[in-house]
Amino acid sequence: MAYLVRRRDTRLMRVLLLPTVIAMTVRCTFRYQWKDLRFKWFEWDRGLVGLVVIAKSIDFALVREGRFKVGEKELPAISDPEQNTTQRRRTTPGKEEPLADREDCGIVGNFLPRALYDALEVGLAMRGVGWDFGQSLYIPSGERPSERDAFMRATLWRFARNMLYIDIWETIEKLTPGVSSTGGTIFLSQLPFFQRYACSTFLHLGHGLFIATGVSCVYDIFSLIGALFCGSKPDDWPPIAGDVWAAQSLHEFWSKGWHQSLRYIFLTYGGFPGQWLAGNVGMVFGTFLASALFHEIGIATTGVAMDRRVFVFFLLQAVGITMERGFGMLTGRRVSGILGFAWAVLFVLGFGQMCTDSWFNRGIAGALAVPESLSIGRQIILPTLRGLAHLYTPVS
């Protein structure tokens, strides 16, 4: 499907192929299950990958002319000679172009067939940077080295830092009373009211950052592969997310602060159908409903039931953004400033706790993210802290 969407006059073939692709993906994703509850994180990720494949297949099947890179005017035909990827041109096929302007596909492009390279290139493009479907995408600003070696060093450092956070936070979550691979909660009933909700807010915030750093780690791995082996330039890998703490509205948090790697997936599943049914409001509600379904159908691969609290949380985000738009229409002013920040905090840090607690209830916090034998937190930091605590505990 990814190959065909990069060839002209293939729409009928793509549409006819779609049911088979969806059926095969559903079977391979949901027919099998890793029974060991410790691996729920990886099972959940496997379910999400299956849903991504289905969404991209739907997009590839229905787009009329195929998928273009920015600047491309025409796609090659299936019957065109399959030249090596390093000889491809960014503009209209058939026009001569200086060698220096041809696309650098790196080491991978030297041995992969053009058809396979094209399929991987569009199939792995999540945000759409440099593609026609990503032209409306917000690209976060941020200083990143433009020189390749410096870019790779900075990326490796960021990856190591994020992995350390993931490791330490997983250690903290597993120390939470009642947390295991079969259940748990962020609301500790044995604590007084204020301490209970301070603890739940801490766990919710940390878990959200845990997810964000996990996404960043995956992105860093692919950016290193792209820079090392695929001829990518540092500019091809802009920051995956903006500054969530700088958001001055709920809309700004979700559209600019949070990562946009699944943006087009949610638009495909719910945003575009919602827009067709009810305009811009329908697009907002459809996008967040798709996000809820995406997360809950994905977690169903672990063998747990869906939880309506996740749907409530995501749909509340749509309500909040719609209210912001209504405020702007009534007053002529956008939601911003400290009150806008507080509004976003209410919806994300406040209402979001029901979503995190739902995942804790179903054993996600007790599942394995970093193997214990490789965990700095559980092998070094935690034993050291326990030793120090024991050393300085007064003897009665």
Automatic annotation (TrEMBL):
Major place of residence: membrane
Q: What sequence ranges are listed for the domain Wax synthase?
A: 237-316
Question: Which residue ranges run through the membrane?
Answer: 209-229, 276-298, 310-328, 334-352
Family, per the entry?
Belongs to the wax synthase family.
What does the record say about its membrane topology? Multi-pass membrane protein
Cellular component terms, GO, for this chain's entry? Answer: membrane
**Descriptive protein name:** Wax synthase domain-containing protein
- Which InterPro entries would you find in this protein's record? Wax_synthase, Wax_synthase_dom
The domain of life is Eukaryota
Task: State any GO BP term from the record.
Answer: lipid metabolic process
Which species is this record about? Dichomitus squalens
Pathway the protein contributes to: Secondary metabolite biosynthesis
Chain intervals for the UniProt region annotation (Disordered): 75-100
Q: Which UniProt keywords apply?
A: Membrane, Transferase, Transmembrane, Transmembrane helix
Q: Name one GO molecular function term.
A: O-acyltransferase activity
Where's it found, cell-wise? Membrane
